[in-house]
Write a structure and sequence with these properties.
The chain is built from twelve helices and no strands. It folds into two domains: 130 residues, Tetratricopeptide repeat domain (Serine Threonine Protein Phosphatase 5, Tetratricopeptide repeat), CATH 1.25.40; 100 residues, Serine Threonine Protein Phosphatase 5, Tetratricopeptide repeat. The two termini are 26 Å apart. It is mainly alpha-helical and 230 residues long.
Length: 230
């Protein structure tokens, strides 16, 4: 299993490669890279903040700092940073980068209990990035597991999760599809798919996800859908 900070570092590096450097000053860029390489969330936040002070229009520093705030559970700050990244990225006109930012804000809104806003963000992310699997995954998870029944939609969750899996077959997307099947009352399909998610997570050495997926499986074996707890 990767340590939690290594997993976060990997996500930051992915964002770095996808989003680029956006014409920031060399000193701001240096602080951004130091943020990517940081070994703790507090250090990440400090270094991305330095980059932003040097270049207030550095969209990708806002994007990554928002991700760090999310990991710390500081969701209001995460949403503010994602919104700033969206505003700046709109000016650049890169649809994929904008899709990533909308998807991220959708995740933060979902975790903050703002489900209507999360759905709006998720739909916008899919519109801008029709091949961006995480946007489908996040929206499927909301429709499958929301604690508020008003926002649950098993049929739509299955459609979205199946699309995410078509784009990227990984344990995370299998887990979302299982949750969608369970919400749709298809517990045999949920169990079968969840076992695949567990097997793949074990192969990848992801012990934390394996533990979570096994908890989900227990619910499906009891013919109960998973519910996200705020």
């Amino acid at each position: 299993m990767k340590p939690w900070n290594e997993a976060i570092k990997g996500l930051a590096l992915l964002s770095f490669l996808l989003l680029g450097l956006g014409g920031c000053t060399s000193e701001a860029e240096a602080w951004y890279i130091r943020g990517v390489e940081a070994q703790s969330l507090d250090t990440m936040i400090f270094r991305y903040t330095k980059a932003i002070k040097l270049d207030p229009n550095y969209a990708f520093a806002y994007n990554n700092r928002g991700g760090a705030y999310n990991k710390k559970g500081l969701l209001d700050k995460a949403i503010i940073d994602a919104s700033k990244a969206i505003t700046l990225l709109k000016l650049e006109g890169n649809k994929h980068n904008l899709a990533v930012a909308y998807s991220n804000r959708g995740i933060y809104n979902r975790r903050n209990g703002s489900y209507a806003r999360a759905i709006e963000d998720g739909n916008k992310a899919i519109e801008l990035g029709p091949d961006y699997a995480p946007a489908y995954n996040s929206l499927a998870w909301l429709f499958a597991t929301s604690p508020d029944a008003v926002f649950r939609n098993g049929k739509r969750a299955v459609e979205l999760a199946e699309r995410a899996l078509e784009l990227d077959r990984n344990a995370h997307n299998l887990d979302a599809l299982s949750a969608a099947y369970a919400e749709a009352g298809k517990f045999q399909e949920a169990i079968r798919t969840q076992l695949q998610a567990i097997e793949l997570a074990k192969k990848e050495g992801d012990e934390s996800s394996t533990t979570n997926y096994e908890k989900h499986l227990e619910r499906y074996n009891s013919r109960k859908p998973w519910r996200e707890i705020r």
